[in-house]
Amino acid sequence: MSDNYLSYRITTPAGPQCLAIHLRDPHGRPQHQRLRALHAAANAWARKGLQIRSDLSIRPPSGSDVQELVDYLFADGSENGPRLQRHLSMLLANRPLHRYTIRPGSPVEGSDLVGREEVVAALLAHLTDKSCHVRAPRRYGKTCILKRVEQELQKQNVPCALIDVSECSSALWFFVAVATGVMDRFGTRPSIESIEELKDWPPVDCEPLLRAEAERALAITIRTNPWHFGRRLLAALADVHMTLLLDEFSVFLREVLKDHRDEARRLLRMLAEARRSTRRIHMALAGSAGLTAYVRFAGLEQELKDLTPIEIEPLSNQEGLVLAEELIYGGFRLPGPGAASEMLAVVGPPVPYFLHALANEICSMTTESTPITASVVRHAYRERLLGSSGNFYFRVYRLQNQTYPDHLRSAASSILSMVARHPQGVPENTLRDLFVGRVAESKHDQFEELFPCLQEDYDLIEGPEGWMMRCKALRDRLALSGAWLAEEE
Amino acid sequence: MAVGNADVPLQSLLPAEIADPDDFDTWFELIRQDAQVAVTQVYNAVSSALDAKTEVLRAEEGCNRAVWTLTDTTGLIKTTASVRSKLFRELAKVQTGTLPSLHEVEQRVVGFPDLGRFRIVCDFASDIQCALRVLLDKGRRVLLSQYPLRGPVKNYALDLHLRRPDRGHRAYQFAVRVPDTRQCSVEIQLMSLLQDAWDRRNHPMYEWTREGGRLPGRLVLSDVALAETLYLVDEQAKRNWRAFLRVRRSSS
């Protein structure tokens, strides 16, 4: 009976949907037992007031979404009912069944984005009349959340543009990037076409080379007085109640602050005015490093103080479990029943990036036929993610990537190493004492400047026994070698 | 196809809990799932037994033919519409003035011999007899020592009393009860490739007449003549095959 199909048909507002399971069983278990287990899971799902109709046939019903039985099995051959229920829920929501892709470090999009509904909703609510700073350490998913926010705003017909400003080295190029990003959104074009310099801008679907040429021409045109263009551009954007989602803003700031400190301050002041005037632009700023460092060390508090911080935290455990399990299936491996919970146990509060990284290492060290047991997970974590092959994943957390003054790096490294080695928490006074011992006397008061930056950039949270690093993977890696943290590449 | 008629709709024959078609569907879904378990159990047991015999036959004949194929008819489980239709016909016959209880309706549905069903399609008529010997005990009361038969094996090929000369394919069929599934029944039909082809093509006509449609006598006779012809073709094919095996054996 290996070629039979068990199908579940459900009725959705958009019409009937059907999931067909090809009952080819690699474990050779009696199929009637499989049916009982799958039906039990489906019935438990349908108990929430949903109607489900099952069928057994030799061919999959036409139009059905066909899955293999193995997609609903754990590595030990037992049935994974919750996964079947998740798939039924996807069909009910009229979404195609989704196989997750393991991609540590690159922004996840579409159905790969798990459990960010609350923070996306918070951002959307906030951006209706305010601006904000998306606050999180590196690799916590700021970019993918901004992308989802952009999609949601577009659905609501709110003029918006997500613009990566990481390659802008001056205010001039910042304005060019904003103009390009905005002109690429068809809905906002008519309102800013009145700006003389943008009148001959190529159409949205033009060749990339043509657009690059337009960008270059714009830069040449406005180079004598970019501020004049910038003011008119921001005014035009304010006229249409534009929402700007500026990604990699801290990279831009770092670059422009190096050689053009006054220019940076002037630009930030102009952006602040655009955010604060009656006809205002709403902005969400995000970047590879927290803005706190700029507020503290570059004296930009006045320019950035109106930005409300919106925190991005790890996923809930339930969401983390689902993501961990789906990533294993996404890597064409079969998880054991305890594999996902072990992934959470080793990674700690589920930061998607580290779950992706661990799944990537698990798949690298196994073949498709290897059952992913808890011990495989532990091995991949200890020997690979925390081992030398895993350095790649932690490079972005090195202190050299942060905007801290050079004379504070050693103290920062010591503080982070101590916090990492004491998972239960370290009292703030102890950290202050450590800091004082590492910097010149004249700099002792800078603990108050540095510590909030470390909180943002390394997800330090205050627990009952003091400050601790929430992300266990990062904590474990830093605890292994504090020196590594401060090393130059 | 519409169930019931304007005078006696099915809803009026059913207990209130399942009178509404949606409620009936929801109620029947759990029975349907048990029927799936039942048909799967029997299907797998039959498939394994026939697979083993296939190897023996291939070795004996020196030919790598399929011998038999397990297949469904219009699905392995009777459709909800078909169950409602059959239930209507049965309840309409036994109307007593009081509605049956839910339990009584369930017993009636579970008792449908063809609630779950599949077909063994055989290369030759002789393979049908071979399959019956493999699957049933000598008294033809138990399938594979596990599943008791509900009644005798029906021989629609040669039993004139069953066959009703103007209707149907020439097949063998029987039903078994499956424990632990509300005693759901599973029907197994055995027929030749040609009879299976005839039945598949003819099925819409059969369904139509079962719901009360009337075919002209000329069409009925013409169509049944086709089935009879195919039966004769099968018989001749069986003889030819045996002759071929004899010729090949003697030449080697």
Helix and strand topology:
The complex is a heterodimer of chains A (about 500) and B (about 250).
Chain A: E1 5-12, E2 15-22, H1 31-46, E3 52-57, E4 65-68, H2 81-92, H3 117-126, E5 132-135, H4 142-155, E6 160-164, H5 171-183, H6 189-192, H7 208-222, H8 226-239, E7 243-247, H9 249-259, H10 261-276, E8 282-285, H11 292-297, H12 301-304, E9 308-311, H13 317-330, E10 334-335, H14 339-347, H15 352-364, E11 371-372, H16 374-385, H17 391-394, H18 406-421, H19 428-438, H20 447-458, E12 460-463, E13 466-469, H21 472-480, H22 482-486
Parallel strand pairs in A: 2-4, 5-8, 5-9, 6-7, 7-8, 10-11
Antiparallel strand pairs in A: 1-2, 1-3, 12-13
Chain B: H1 21-61, E1 68-71, H2 80-93, H3 102-110, E2 116-122, H4 125-135, E3 142-143, E4 147-148, E5 154-155, H5 160-163, E6 172-178, E7 184-192, H6 193-210, H7 217-251
Parallel strand pairs in B: 2-7
Antiparallel strand pairs in B: 1-2, 3-4, 5-6, 6-7
What does this structure look like?
Chain A is α/β, with parallel strands linked by helices and 489 residues long. Chain A is 49% helix and 12% strand. Chain A has 4 domains: 5-92, no CATH class; 116-311, 3-Layer(aba) Sandwich (Rossmann fold), CATH 3.40.50.300; 317-385, Helicase, Ruva Protein, domain 3, CATH 1.10.8; 399-486. Chain A has helices at residues 31-46, 81-92, 117-126, 142-155, 171-183, 189-192, 208-222, 226-239, 249-259, 261-276, 292-297, 301-304, 317-330, 339-347, 352-364, 374-385, 391-394, 406-421, 428-438, 447-458, 472-480, 482-486, and strands at residues 5-12, 15-22, 52-57, 65-68, 132-135, 160-164, 243-247, 282-285, 308-311, 334-335, 371-372, 460-463, 466-469. Chain A has a 5-stranded parallel sheet, sandwiched between helices. In chain A, strands 3-1-2-4 form a 4-stranded mixed sheet, covered by helices on one side. Chain A has a two-stranded parallel ribbon with strand order 10-11. Chain A starts with a strand and ends with a helix. In chain B, strand 6 and strand 7 (184-192) form a beta hairpin. Chain B has 252 residues and is an alpha+beta fold. The chains are: A alpha/beta (489), B alpha+beta (252).
